[in-house]
């Protein structure tokens, strides 16, 4: 629904279902946390900063209630909260906060290559928005080393083209990288 532009309906459905999943059962808690993070990100895309932050905080509380031996590769873990917060702060136009959160994430502690790549891509977006585009190619290459398929997403290709269009010297290897990932 969010991707189709129906943000209000999406956030309403996400938060309603999340509210219904409030038992001590680990799987219901994980479902609730996952829905809350998705709702938070959707609110951030609409510029609703207070609600987005509040929902992310609620998801962090839910993560704290997960069983001690919760599987790291489940639909929701405590490690996902800061990952989503990076995207939330990027969407809210606060790349400095996104970068601060990213510094606290250990990529090696994340359970999948896809999640590692997503963090790297969000960091690249934050550097770009923060006015430090020269740092983006390294983050993009790191994403490529974890999950090359993530670099073929339209949003990532758009970022790569924007880097190529910046005035001044193009970073070494960026043209080749853009060709390899299909951005040009």
Structure description:
The protein has 184 residues and is mostly helical. It contains nine helices and no strands. The protein has helices at 7-20, 26-45, 49-64, 80-91, 95-103, 113-129, 136-146, 154-165, 174-180. The radius of gyration is 17 Å and the shape is globular. The mean pLDDT is 88.
- How would a textbook summarize the main sheet? none
Q: What percentage of the residues does DSSP assign to strands (E)?
A: under 5%
Distance between the termini: 30 Å
Secondary-structure content class: mainly alpha
The best one-word shape is globular
Key features?
globular, 9 helices, 184 residues, 64% helix, mainly alpha, 0% strand
In short:
The protein has 184 residues and is mostly helical.
Topology, pairings included?
Layout: H1 7-20, H2 26-45, H3 49-64, H4 80-91, H5 95-103, H6 113-129, H7 136-146, H8 154-165, H9 174-180
